[in-house]
Structures are given as C-alpha cells and as structure tokens.
C-alpha cells in the first residue's frame, strides 16, 4: 500500500534502494523495496536502463581493444608460438605493415584532396566575389533626424572596401 502511494506521488524520488516521498500532506516517509522485486521497473523496462548509444559505445570500445590485442599478437608473436597453440591459418605478416601504411597514405591523400578542392572552390583574391555576394547589404544613405543627444543605432550593413582602405591606410600618407 505504502509502495503504491509513493510510486503514484509525482513528488516522490525514485532510487534503486528506496523511495522518498516528499508530500505536503505528510512528512517524508522512507520505504525499502525488495531488491528481487522486478515490478519496480528499475533498469528493466522502457525509459529505465541503459540507452542504446551507451550500449553501442561500450560494445565498440571493447571490440576495439580486442581487435587491437589480436592484431598485436598476430604481428609480433613468432610463428612457432602460433603453431604451438594451434593457429596455422592467418594472413601473411606483410599485411601487418602494409595495411597501416595504406591507411596512412589514404588519410594524407584525402586531406590533400580536401585542401585542393577548397582552393579550387575559392575565388581569386582579385575577384569581387570575395567582397560582395547575395547577402551583402549596402549602408543606408539617409541620415535619420536626431532629436536631442541620442543617436539611433544604425541598421546592420557591410562596410565598403573604400571605407576600409580609407580607415586603414589614410594615416600612412
């Protein structure tokens, strides 16, 4: 009875070992649940229990460690030792060096290809496309009337290249 009331109360705090009920009508009550009670729902159903992404991450990390250990044993243990434990069919030791080398060369070429594509997609520095595009906004030429000491905030716009050159290089003359 007490367990059912505590589970229905929206202000109760669920814990694997106890349920604390903080009700305004009565003082806090503590009831210890039977650890073998599967109807409590702790870690068994729906929203309780591990998330699939956590399970996939755990299985992936364990699989990576196991695969690394198997690779290192295959690459470094002498052949007579492998024959003594009954392993006769395994890839040539050539692949212990070839596969990592091929992977590293592929990564370096992919990075080089990516950088080359970015250079090809970028317009030259003399192109007006580096200064203006479809999102460019010209500043408004109308000066708003100023009443009092306060000036309004100007709308967002791009600064023209002539203004930038004047600000940066005017003092050098």
TrEMBL record:
<keyword id="KW-0812">Transmembrane</keyword>
<keyword id="KW-1133">Transmembrane helix</keyword>
<dbReference type="GO" id="GO:0016020">
    <property type="term" value="C:membrane"/>
</dbReference>
<feature type="domain" description="PIG-P">
    <location>
        <begin position="53"/>
        <end position="169"/>
    </location>
</feature>
<feature type="transmembrane region" description="Helical">
    <location>
        <begin position="97"/>
        <end position="117"/>
    </location>
</feature>
<protein>
    <recommendedName>
        <fullName>PIG-P domain-containing protein</fullName>
    </recommendedName>
</protein>
<dbReference type="Pfam" id="PF08510">
    <property type="entry name" value="PIG-P"/>
</dbReference>
<keyword id="KW-0472">Membrane</keyword>
<dbReference type="InterPro" id="IPR013717">
    <property type="entry name" value="PIG-P"/>
</dbReference>
<feature type="transmembrane region" description="Helical">
    <location>
        <begin position="55"/>
        <end position="77"/>
    </location>
</feature>
């Amino acid at each position: 009875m007490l367990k059912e009331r505590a589970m229905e109360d929206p202000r109760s705090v669920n814990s694997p070992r106890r349920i604390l009920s903080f009700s305004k009508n009565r003082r806090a009550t503590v009831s210890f649940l039977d650890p073998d009670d599967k109807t409590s729902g702790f870690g068994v159903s729906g929203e309780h229990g591990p998330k699939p992404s956590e399970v996939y991450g755990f299985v992936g990390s364990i699989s990576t460690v196991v695969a690394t250990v198997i690779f290192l044993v295959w690459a470094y243990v002498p052949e007579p030792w492998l024959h003594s434990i009954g392993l006769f069919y395994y890839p040539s030791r050539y692949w212990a060096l070839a596969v990592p080398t091929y992977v590293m060369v592929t990564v370096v070429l992919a990075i080089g290809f990516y950088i080359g594509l970015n250079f090809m997609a970028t317009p030259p520095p003399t192109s007006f496309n580096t200064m203006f595009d479809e999102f460019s906004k010209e500043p408004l030429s109308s000066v708003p009337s100023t009443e009092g000491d306060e000036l309004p905030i100007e709308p967002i716009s791009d600064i023209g290249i002539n203004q930038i050159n004047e600000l940066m290089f005017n003092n050098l003359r």
